[in-house]
């Protein structure tokens, strides 16, 4: 059986290692460059590879193809494979049959990384033999090849879910849905929503779907679709006999006739959106039979996720916050919503079809100055030019941070929450966040 892998990144290399272990004839092809450390792994494992090209003769003879999530369906080589009827899968679909572990799959437009990390923290702190993968950390396939975990917590993007056929998590979470990556979905929001709901398409009556009952897109989907999975909703405003909710500053969770309560003030994560993430992750812990005392302790000591509302430093009584992971408007909405001091907001980058109107009331209420950090800032300037007193354009992080310092006074906050992708000026959102933290430390 010939397994061809398109993309020599983390998921590609992990799949190559698992494929080789399972007796496939493996070939890795990357249209760009493959990182040196990944090349070494391929060479040590005697796996054939090519970079900066896709040689059709070596690809179109595949029995099975795993494509990395970053490669769109519309790319010429993928189109040819589909025309020939060669199955094109995601790493998750390829790896899942090779493990008997309990799989917890988490998707959503925002909050999925925090929810994934928190669910993993809850299970690991309870002593479970658990792996963390998917969109973060070491690739799922690689872990299936090298480790013997009894459970996995996987962060799953819509792109990864597009490539599944039979994959089903025992516990699925949809944190929320807001317009994102619409360029990959023919600019049709409903296509993107359907993509997220693929997480539950193969679930049975023995499985669970945990979801945000306050989310409009999710509610709309349920009007015309069903899933066999047992439903566990969570909400900030409604209460349930089966599900999770906040009432009188307490998180209350009721699952399979078992109750769990905890004062929200003892939960380490701050902000309304994080209460949702905490409810989702705690629902997982309850389903996995983790003791209440362990859950309480883990919720109170969780450190949060880097580049997500990360407090960097306080300088001259001004708090600097790195929220570089906010790559869409919805994520930035949560960030601005959790500000309770006058804010200098650093925003901008590659716009994925943003509608900034959603932020208008928060900007009016909280933002004293805007610093645009992007190659093309026209949309941001058009949206907020008349709303804030001060608007500045810069093209590098050092200037952005120095300018922010000039515009603040004691008690203010400087918030990097770009609402955009980072590829115009940075390698990725991590690079953008790290440059921000370094610039703040240099002040």
Automatic annotation (TrEMBL):
In terms of InterPro entries, this protein maps to: Mur-like_cat_sf, Mur_ligase_C, Mur_ligase_C_dom_sf, Mur_ligase_cen, MurD
Is-annotated flag, keyword Repeat?
no
- GO molecular-function term, one example from the UniProt record: UDP-N-acetylmuramoylalanine-D-glutamate ligase activity
Indicate where this protein resides in the cell.
Cytoplasm
Q: In which pathway does it act?
A: Cell wall biogenesis; peptidoglycan biosynthesis
Keyword annotations for this protein, in alphabetical order, are: ATP-binding, Cell cycle, Cell division, Cell shape, Cell wall biogenesis/degradation, Cytoplasm, Ligase, Nucleotide-binding, Peptidoglycan synthesis
Q: Which GO terms describe its biological process?
A: cell division; cell wall organization; peptidoglycan biosynthetic process; regulation of cell shape
| Chain sites annotated for binding ATP | 108-114
What reaction does this catalyse?
UDP-N-acetyl-alpha-D-muramoyl-L-alanine + D-glutamate + ATP = UDP-N-acetyl-alpha-D-muramoyl-L-alanyl-D-glutamate + ADP + phosphate + H(+)
Q: Does the keyword Cell division apply?
A: yes
Q: What class of enzyme is it?
A: ligase
* A family per Pfam: MurD_N
Q: Offer a single GO CC term for the protein.
A: cytoplasm
* Annotated ranges, domain Mur ligase C-terminal: 307-420
Q: Which Gene3D superfamilies does the UniProt record give?
A: Mur ligase, C-terminal domain, Mur-like, catalytic domain, NAD(P)-binding Rossmann-like Domain
- Domain Mur ligase central, by residue range, is 106-284
Instruction: Give EC number(s), comma-separated.
Output: 6.3.2.9
Similarity section? Belongs to the MurCDEF family.
The UniProt function text for this chain reads: Cell wall formation. Catalyzes the addition of glutamate to the nucleotide precursor UDP-N-acetylmuramoyl-L-alanine (UMA).
The name on file for this protein is UDP-N-acetylmuramoylalanine--D-glutamate ligase
> What organism is this sequence from?
Flavobacterium xinjiangense
What lineage is on file?
Bacteria, Pseudomonadati, Bacteroidota, Flavobacteriia, Flavobacteriales
Please state the gene responsible for encoding this protein: murD
């Amino acid at each position: 059986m010939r397994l061809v892998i398109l993309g020599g990144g983390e998921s590609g290399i992990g799949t190559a290692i698992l494929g080789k272990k399972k007796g496939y004839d493996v070939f890795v092809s990357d249209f760009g460059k493959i990182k040196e450390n990944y090349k070494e792994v391929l060479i040590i494992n005697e796996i054939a590879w090519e970079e900066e090209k896709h040689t059709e003769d070596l690809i179109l003879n595949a029995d099975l193809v795993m494509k990395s999530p970053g490669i769109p369906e519309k790319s010429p080589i993928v189109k040819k494979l589909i025309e020939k009827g060669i199955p094109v899968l995601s790493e998750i679909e390829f790896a899942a049959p090779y493990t008997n572990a309990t799989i917890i799959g988490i998707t959503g437009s925002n909050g999925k990384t925090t929810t994934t990390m928190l669910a993993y923290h809850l299970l690991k702190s309870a002593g479970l033999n658990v792996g963390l993968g998917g969109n973060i950390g070491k690739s799922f396939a690689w872990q299936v090849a090298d480790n013997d975990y009894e459970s996995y917590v996987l962060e799953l993007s819509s792109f990864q879910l597009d490539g599944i056929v039979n994959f089903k998590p025992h516990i699925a979470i949809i944190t929320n849905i807001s317009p994102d990556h619409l360029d990959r979905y023919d600019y049709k929001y409903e296509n993107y929503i359907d993509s997220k709901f693929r997480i539950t398409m193969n679930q049975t009556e023995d499985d669970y779907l945990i979801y945000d009952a306050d989310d409009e897109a999710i509610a709309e989907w349920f009007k015309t679709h069903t899933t066999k999975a047992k439903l566990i909703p969570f909400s900030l405003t409604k209460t349930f006999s089966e599900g999770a909710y906040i009432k009188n500053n307490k998180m209350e969770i009721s699952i399979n006739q078992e109750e769990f309560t905890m004062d929200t003030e003892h939960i380490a994560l701050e902000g309304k959106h994080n209460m949702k993430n905490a409810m989702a992750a705690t629902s997982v812990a309850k389903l996995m039979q983790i003791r209440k005392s362990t859950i309480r302790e883990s919720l109170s000591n969780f450190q949060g996720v880097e580049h997500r509302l990360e407090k960097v430093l306080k300088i001259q009584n001004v708090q600097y916050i790195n929220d570089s992971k906010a790559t869409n408007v919805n994520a930035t909405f949560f960030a601005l919503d959790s500000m309770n001091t006058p804010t200098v907001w650093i925003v901008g980058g590659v716009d994925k079809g943003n509608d900034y109107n959603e932020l208008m009331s928060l900007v009016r209420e909280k933002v004293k100055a805007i610093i645009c950090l992007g190659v093309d800032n026209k949309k941001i300037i058009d949206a907020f030019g008349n709303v804030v007193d001060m608007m500045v354009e810069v093209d590098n992080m050092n200037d952005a941070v120095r300018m922010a310092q000039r515009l603040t006074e004691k008690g203010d906050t400087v918030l990097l929450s770009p609402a955009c992708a980072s590829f115009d000026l940075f390698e990725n959102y991590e690079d953008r966040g790290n440059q921000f933290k370094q610039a703040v430390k240099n002040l």
